[in-house]
Task: inverse folding
C-alpha cells in the first residue's frame, strides 16, 4: 500500500493531479481510493465547508477543527477500504490558512499528530491562475479566495512544504503530468 497526499491552495489543481495520479496507478493494475477534503458528503466535511464561506478568525479556526475531524474520518475509512493505494486531496498544508500567529504551530501539530503519508506532493500555482480556476467553478468564493489571501497562503504553503515533491501546475495539464510521473519515478527509486 502506498499513501499519497496531494496538497496546495484553492484553485491549484489538486483534484486534477489526483485524478491523473489515480489513472497512472490504475494503468499499472493497482486499485486506488481517493479522499477529498473537506468531503461534503460527510458531516464534518459539510460543516467545515460551511465555515469556509464565513469570514474572520473564529470561522477559520472552526473550519480547521471540522476539517481535521473530516481528515480523521478519512483515515478511519482508509483502514476499512481494501485498496492498493490511497490518495488524499488536501491534508496538512491546510494549516497555511490559519491566522498568522497560528499557521506554523498548527502545521507542526497537525504534521506531528496525524500519520505521515508515503509521498507528499505540493501543487503550486500563482494566485491569478488560482483565482481564474476558482471563478470558473461558478460557486461562491470561500473566505480565503481573494488574490491577497491566496498570495499569502501560497507563500506559507511553499514554506511549510519544504522537502515535498513540487509540481508547477500553472501551465498545461500534460506538463504537470510529466512532472508527476518524474516525481513518482524519483519516489520509487
Result:
Amino acid at each position: 500500500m502506498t499513501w499519497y497526499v496531494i496538497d496546495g491552495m484553492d484553485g491549484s489543481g489538486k483534484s486534477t493531479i489526483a485524478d491523473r495520479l489515480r489513472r497512472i496507478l490504475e494503468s499499472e493494475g493497482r486499485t486506488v481510493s481517493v479522499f477529498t477534503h473537506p468531503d461534503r458528503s460527510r458531516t464534518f466535511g459539510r460543516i467545515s465547508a460551511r465555515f469556509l464561506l464565513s469570514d474572520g478568525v473564529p470561522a477559520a479556526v472552526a473550519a480547521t477543527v471540522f476539517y481535521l475531524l473530516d481528515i480523521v474520518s478519512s483515515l478511519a475509512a482508509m483502514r476499512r477500504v481494501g485498496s492498493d493505494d490511497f490518495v488524499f486531496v488536501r491534508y496538512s498544508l491546510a494549516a497555511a490558512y490559519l491566522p498568522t500567529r497560528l499557521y506554523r504551530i498548527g502545521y507542526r501539530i497537525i504534521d506531528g499528530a496525524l500519520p505521515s503519508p508515503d509521498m507528499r506532493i505540493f501543487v503550486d500555482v500563482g494566485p491569478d491562475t488560482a483565482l481564474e480556476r476558482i471563478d470558473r467553478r461558478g460557486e461562491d468564493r470561500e473566505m480565503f479566495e481573494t488574490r491577497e489571501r491566496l498570495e499569502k497562503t501560497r507563500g506559507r504553503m511553499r514554506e511549510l512544504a519544504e522537502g515535498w515533491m513540487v509540481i508547477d501546475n500553472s501551465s498545461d495539464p500534460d506538463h504537470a503530468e510529466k512532472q508527476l510521473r518524474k516525481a513518482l519515478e524519483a519516489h520509487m527509486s
